[in-house]
């Protein structure tokens, strides 16, 4: 049975037996919006932050029998939570080599979800070390971004080292093709980031191979074209 709003994930959370899951309730709609495309397909998902293992069971249920779910946590007790389709790895989000070692053990990933320690260094380091391991067409989702505003997690309003401020730079990189400033140039994220979506406490980054954009003109002009317009028109 699904809830009236059609959320398979929320139905699992509310109505099915599972280990403990701790989620903000508005997250479920966001998950459905970005993850539905991967259901019942042979995908690989990595979630940082295992806790009691309930969300790993939720992903297993949601994505189906062809999915492989990997969970990463610093707590060695989490290793006990492995089950069919779910593998637990021990790792430290503050340690770049630890994350590199984890990526070396895993196949390319379709989804990376950061629900780990939520500190600024952990969120930045995890993104930087795992982005290359995400497939084209994949989704990177970091949640609980409200910690970016909490000093206890290393955050603070518009502090330059927060993950919120870090991801705002991706907006500039989406538009680097058009920059006339030598400090702003096309780089890896310009060529691999299709979209950045912000929600309350969540950022979703879509990965895709991006080529230099170009414009075309089609149809019969109503008035004589300016030289710049003519050049575009002639290209078809």
Automatic annotation (TrEMBL):
Concerning InterPro entries, the annotation shows: SAM-dependent_MTases_sf (IPR029063)
One annotated GO molecular function is: methyltransferase activity
A Gene Ontology BP annotation from the UniProt entry: methylation
Q: Which CDD domains match?
A: AdoMet_MTases (cd02440)
Keywords for this entry? Methyltransferase, Transferase
- Asked whether the UniProt record includes Methyltransferase among its keywords, one would answer yes
Tell me any Pfam family this protein matches.
Methyltransf_24
Supply the name of the protein: Class I SAM-dependent methyltransferase
């Amino acid at each position: 049975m699904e809830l009236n709003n059609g959320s398979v994930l929320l139905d699992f959370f509310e109505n099915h037996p599972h280990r403990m899951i701790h989620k903000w309730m508005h997250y479920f709609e966001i998950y459905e919006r970005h993850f539905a495309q991967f259901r019942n397909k042979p995908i690989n998902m990595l979630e940082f932050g295992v806790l009691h293992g309930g969300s790993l069971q939720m992903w297993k249920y949601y994505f189906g029998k062809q999915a492989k779910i990997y969970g990463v946590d610093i707590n060695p007790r989490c290793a006990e939570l492995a089950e069919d389709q779910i593998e637990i790895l021990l790792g430290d989000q503050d340690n770049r080599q630890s994350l590199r070692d984890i990526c070396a053990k895993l196949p390319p990933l379709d989804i990376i979800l950061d629900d780990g320690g939520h500190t600024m260094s952990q969120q930045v380091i995890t993104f930087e070390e795992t982005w290359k391991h995400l497939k084209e067409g994949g989704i990177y989702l970091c949640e609980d971004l409200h910690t970016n505003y909490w000093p206890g997690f290393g955050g603070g309003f518009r502090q330059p080292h927060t993950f919120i401020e870090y991801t705002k730079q991706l907006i500039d990189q989406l538009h680097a093709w058009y920059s006339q400033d030598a400090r702003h140039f096309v780089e890896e994220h310009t060529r691999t980031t299709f979209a950045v979506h912000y929600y309350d406490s969540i950022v979703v980054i879509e990965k895709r191979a991006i080529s230099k954009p170009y414009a075309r003109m089609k149809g019969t002009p109503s008035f004589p074209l300016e030289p710049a317009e003519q050049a575009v028109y002639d290209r078809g």
